[in-house]
Design the sequence.
C-alpha cells in the first residue's frame, strides 16, 4: 500500500447535494422557486457541482431539475438516477439543457443490499454497471458519475471490481458512499488506499466520497478520504440529508481552509457566502441551525467566559481559529428605515444577491413598508427574511387574506380566517383551548384539510421586542409529514401563514399528476 499522499495541491471539488439528499430530510419539501433560489446561492458560494434532484421520483422533481438546468449557470448541474434505463433517460431529459450536465447513476454493492433490497447477484450487478454506465456515457459523454451504494459495507474485492467496471464503461467520477454512516476515519482512509490499489482506473478519474452522519463522523470521514487523495466531496448545507444528514459543506470547507498547513488541498469556494447560504437554506427548509453548530451556529463565534473574552479582546487568535468575517458574518448593519424608497430597497436587495423587478419588487416594497412602519430599523437579516417569504409564497395554492383572533385569560379563544384560492375566498372559524390551536382549526375549516400538529416553533429573526417572528410548523396528514414556515412582525400572522403553507404542500402533493413514490433509499 502506498503511503504517499495523493493529489497534494489539487483543489477539492465541492459537489453539493442539498437539493437532492438534503431535500430527503423528513418534512422538507421545497417548491421550484425555492430550489432555484438555493441553486443560485450555491453558485455564489462557488460550488463546482449542484445535484439538483432525482428526476424520476416525481413530475415535480423532474420540473425543478429541468428549471435549474435551464436557468442556473456557472456550475455543473447533476441529476440522480438508479442504474435503471427509464431513470437514466428521465434524468437526461431533465438536465440536458444545462451548460454542463452530469448524470449520476448508482447501484448497491453490499451483500446486505444485494440480497434484501435489489435482489441481484454480484455478476448481475457487474453486468448492469457495464450496460447502464454505457447508456449514461452515450447520452452525456465526459460527465458521468457512478456511485457504489453502501460501499463501506461491501466486500472490498467486489467493490473494486464494480468501480473498475464503471471506469471501463466510461464513468468520469467514481463516488464511494458511506451510505449508512458506518465507517470510522481510519478505516475509511485505509479503504481509499486499498481501492486505489485494487481498481487502478481510479488514478485517472475524479474520486468522490459521500459520507452520512449517523455516528457524527461524516465530516471526519470526508476529510480522512481527502487526505488519502479523494478529489471530490459530496456535502450539504447545514449538514442536511437522509437521517442524520450528510457532511456539512461549511464544516468541510472551513476545516480544509483553517488546516491548510496539514491538508494542503486548496478550496475554491467563496467562503464569505457561507453564513448567508446557511441562513437561506435554514429559512427555506425550516430546519433551524443548532446554536452550538460548528461554523454557522449562532454561538460559533461567541465568547461567554470572562477569561475567553479577556483573551479575545487582547488578541483575537487567543481563542478564535477562524474569523467571523471569513464566513460572511458581522455585516448585519442597519440598512433601511421607514422613509427609505423603492430604489434603496432594490439596491440593498441586489447587494444581498436578490434581484427583484416589476410586480415582485412592488410586493417586496409593500411588505417592507408594513415592517418599517412598525419597526424602527430594518436590517439586512430582516430583508433576507422578507425576501425569503416572498419566494415561499410564489407557488402557494391557498393564501391568507385576513384573520381575526380573540384571546385572553377569561375567554375561549376564537378565530376567523379568510383564505383565497384561485381568486375565490374561503372562510373558516373555530373556538378552541388556545389561540394558536383556534387559528389552526379555523384554517382547517377554510381549506378543507385537517392537519395534526407535530411541531410548532417560534424564533425571532433579530434581537429586540420589535423583531420579525419566524414560525415553523410540522403537520401530519394521511400519515405523511409536511412543514411550513413564515415570517411576520406579528407572531399570530406568521403562525397562520406557516400552517397554511404546510397545508399548501399537502394540496400540491395531492394535485400533482402522479403521486411521489416513497423514496427508494
Ligand atoms: O447515500 C448514498 O449512498 C447516496 C447515493 C445515491 C450516492 O445518497
Ligand atoms: Zn446519501
Sequence:
Amino acid at each position: 500500500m502506498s503511503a504517499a499522499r495523493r493529489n497534494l495541491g489539487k483543489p477539492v471539488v465541492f459537489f453539493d447535494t442539498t437539493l437532492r439528499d438534503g431535500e430527503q430530510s423528513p418534512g422538507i419539501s421545497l417548491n421550484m422557486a425555492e430550489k432555484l433560489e438555493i441553486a443560485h446561492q450555491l453558485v455564489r458560494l462557488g460550488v463546482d457541482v449542484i445535484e439538483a434532484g432525482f428526476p424520476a421520483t416525481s413530475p415535480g422533481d423532474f420540473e425543478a431539475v429541468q428549471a435549474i438546468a435551464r436557468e442556473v449557470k456557472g456550475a455543473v448541474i447533476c441529476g440522480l438516477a438508479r442504474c435503471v434505463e427509464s431513470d437514466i433517460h428521465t434524468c437526461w431529459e431533465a438536465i440536458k439543457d444545462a451548460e454542463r450536465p452530469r448524470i449520476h447513476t448508482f447501484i448497491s454493492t453490499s451483500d446486505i443490499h444485494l440480497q434484501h433490497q435489489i435482489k441481484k447477484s454480484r455478476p448481475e450487478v457487474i453486468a448492469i454497471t457495464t450496460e447502464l454506465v454505457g447508456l449514461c456515457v452515450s447520452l452525456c459523454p465526459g460527465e458521468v458519475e457512478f456511485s457504489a451504494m453502501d460501499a463501506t459495507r461491501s466486500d472490498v474485492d467486489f467493490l473494486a471490481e464494480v468501480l473498475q467496471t464503471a471506469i471501463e464503461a466510461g464513468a468520469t467520477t467514481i463516488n464511494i458512499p458511506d451510505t449508512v454512516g458506518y465507517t470510522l476515519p481510519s478505516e475509511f482512509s485505509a479503504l481509499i488506499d486499498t481501492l486505489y490499489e485494487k481498481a487502478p482506473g481510479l488514478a485517472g478519474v475524479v474520486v468522490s466520497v459521500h459520507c452520512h452522519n449517523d455516528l457524527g463522523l461524516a465530516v471526519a470521514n470526508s476529510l480522512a478520504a481527502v487526505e488519502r487523495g479523494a478529489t471530490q466531496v459530496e456535502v450539504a448545507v447545514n449538514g442536511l440529508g437522509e437521517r442524520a444528514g450528510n457532511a456539512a459543506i461549511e464544516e468541510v470547507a472551513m476545516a480544509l481552509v483553517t488546516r491548510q498547513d496539514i491538508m494542503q488541498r486548496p478550496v475554491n469556494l467563496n467562503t464569505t457566502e457561507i453564513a448567508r447560504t446557511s441562513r437561506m437554506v435554514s429559512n427555506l427548509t425550516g430546519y433551524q441551525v443548532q446554536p452550538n453548530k460548528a461554523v454557522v451556529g449562532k454561538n460559533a463565534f461567541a465568547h461567554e467566559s470572562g477569561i475567553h473574552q479577556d483573551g479575545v479582546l487582547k488578541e483575537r487568535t487567543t481563542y478564535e481559529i477562524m474569523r467571523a468575517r471569513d464566513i460572511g458574518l458581522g455585516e448585519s448593519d442597519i440598512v433601511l428605515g421607514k422613509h427609505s424608497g423603492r430604489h434603496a430597497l432594490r439596491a440593498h436587495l441586489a447587494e444581498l444577491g436578490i434581484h427583484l423587478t416589476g410586480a415582485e419588487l412592488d410586493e417586496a416594497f409593500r411588505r417592507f413598508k408594513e415592517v418599517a412602519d412598525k419597526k424602527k430599523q430594518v436590517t439586512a437579516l430582516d430583508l433576507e427574511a422578507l425576501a425569503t417569504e416572498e419566494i415561499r409564497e410564489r407557488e402557494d395554492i391557498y393564501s391568507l387574506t385576513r384573520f381575526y383572533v380573540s384571546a385572553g385569560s377569561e375567554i375561549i379563544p376564537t378565530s376567523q380566517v379568510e383564505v383565497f384560492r384561485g381568486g375565490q375566498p374561503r372562510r373558516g372559524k373555530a373556538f378552541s383551548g388556545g389561540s394558536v390551536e383556534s387559528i389552526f382549526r379555523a384554517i382547517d375549516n377554510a381549506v378543507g384539510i385537517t392537519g395534526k400538529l407535530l411541531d410548532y416553533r417560534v424564533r425571532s429573526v433579530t434581537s429586540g421586542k420589535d423583531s420579525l417572528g419566524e414560525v415553523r410548523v410540522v403537520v401530519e396528514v394521511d400519515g405523511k409529514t409536511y412543514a411550513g414556515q413564515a415570517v411576520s412582525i406579528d407572531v399570530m400572522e406568521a403562525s397562520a401563514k406557516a400552517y397554511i403553507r404546510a397545508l399548501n404542500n399537502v394540496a400540491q402533493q395531492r394535485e400533482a399528476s402522479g403521486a411521489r413514490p416513497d423514496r427508494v433509499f
Summary: The first strand starts at residue 13 and ends at 16. Residues 21, 177, 179, 210, 212, 241-242 surround zinc ion (ligand 2) (CB under 6 Å). Residues 383 and 520 are 38 Å apart (CA to CA).
